[in-house]
């Protein structure tokens, strides 16, 4: 455990996906108390939110110290985000690549909104550490996942709320294979198995087909990245 954070509380952006579950385990290994925050924003794959309770129970069963640190679970509803966006994550349309080089799964402003609401909640609860699964190493090119964006948000939130927030992004510089490895380093095979079986990544919300890397359509960008990372992780073991 890091001595710098061992007596403090963190708020983890927790969607119920692979990345956020890994970040939750990362935070539980470093902070004295960990609260979580999920968002209902009209996402097409809202089934991810239903996975959280099973993941919470699984996390508690892995390690007694993690169970004792896990604090309140919060969910905020922000349907306006879907109302003002025309994307494949908020509409029943095919996933395609846009002329700007971004897939139409990009929801403009999503992470900016998430972090602003997270900071507002953290402010009220006396929390200054916020943990998110943003990554610019192995991702779909979303500009609000870039380290430069997150550093700018940290500065803006700290200035705007007169509170020194620290935004932690433990996955920022690692690929999906390394994300699987990080989960293994944190919780061994039991955590990896929990993420495979109970977390959700698929953009289409598909939970019917189970693959060796978990549930999903197997074709969307999120499934493709997760599957590729799993294959590379297994090959390197």
UniProtKB/TrEMBL annotation:
Q: Which SUPFAM superfamilies match?
A: Adenine nucleotide alpha hydrolases-like
A single Gene Ontology MF term assigned here is: ligase activity
* Cofactor binding notes: Binds 1 zinc ion per subunit.
- Report residues binding ATP: 14-24
One Pfam family, please name it: QueC
Which pathway, per its entry? Purine metabolism; 7-cyano-7-deazaguanine biosynthesis
Q: Which InterPro entries does the record match to this protein?
A: QueC, Rossmann-like_a/b/a_fold
Q: Where does Zn(2+) bind?
A: 202, 217, 220, 223
Q: Which keywords does this Swiss-Prot/TrEMBL entry list?
A: ATP-binding, Ligase, Metal-binding, Nucleotide-binding, Queuosine biosynthesis, Zinc
- Tell me its EC number(s), please: 6.3.4.20
- Does the record carry ATP-binding as a key word? yes
Needed cofactors: Zn(2+)
**What is the catalytic activity of this protein?**
7-carboxy-7-carbaguanine + NH4(+) + 2 ATP = 7-cyano-7-carbaguanine + 2 AMP + 2 diphosphate + 2 H(+)
Superkingdom: Bacteria
Q: What does this protein do?
A: Catalyzes the ATP-dependent conversion of 7-carboxy-7-deazaguanine (CDG) to 7-cyano-7-deazaguanine (preQ(0)).
Instruction: State the similarity comment.
Output: Belongs to the QueC family.
The family database entries (PANTHER family) matched by this protein are listed as: 7-CYANO-7-DEAZAGUANINE SYNTHASE
Q: What is this protein called?
A: 7-cyano-7-deazaguanine synthase
What taxonomic ancestry is recorded?
A: Bacteria, Pseudomonadati, Pseudomonadota, Alphaproteobacteria, Hyphomicrobiales
Q: Which gene encodes it?
A: queC
């Amino acid at each position: 455990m890091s001595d710098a954070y061992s007596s403090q509380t963190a708020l983890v952006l927790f969607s119920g996906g692979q990345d956020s579950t890994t970040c939750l385990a990362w935070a539980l290994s470093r902070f004295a108390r960990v609260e979580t925050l999920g968002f209902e924003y009209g996402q097409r794959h809202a089934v991810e939110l239903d996975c959280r309770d099973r993941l919470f129970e699984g996390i508690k069963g892995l390690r007694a110290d993690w169970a004792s640190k896990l604090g309140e679970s919060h969910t905020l509803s922000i349907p306006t985000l879907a109302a003002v966006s025309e994307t494949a994550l908020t509409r029943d349309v095919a996933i395609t690549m846009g002329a700007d080089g971004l897939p139409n799964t990009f929801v403009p402003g999503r992470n900016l909104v998430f972090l602003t609401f997270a900071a507002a909640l953290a402010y009220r609860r006396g929390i200054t550490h916020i943990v998110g699964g943003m990554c610019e190493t192995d991702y779909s090119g979303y500009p609000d996942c870039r380290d430069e964006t997150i550093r700018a948000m940290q500065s803006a939130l700290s200035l705007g709320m007169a509170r020194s927030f620290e935004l932690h992004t433990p996955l920022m510089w690692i690929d999906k294979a390394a994300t699987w490895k990080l989960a293994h380093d944190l919780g061994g095979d039991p955590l990896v198995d929990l993420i495979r079986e109970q977390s959700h990544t698929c953009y289409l919300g598909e939970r019917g087909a189970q693959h060796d890397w978990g549930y999903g359509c197997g074709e969307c960008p999120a499934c493709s990245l997760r599957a590729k990372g799993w294959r590379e992780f297994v090959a390197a073991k």
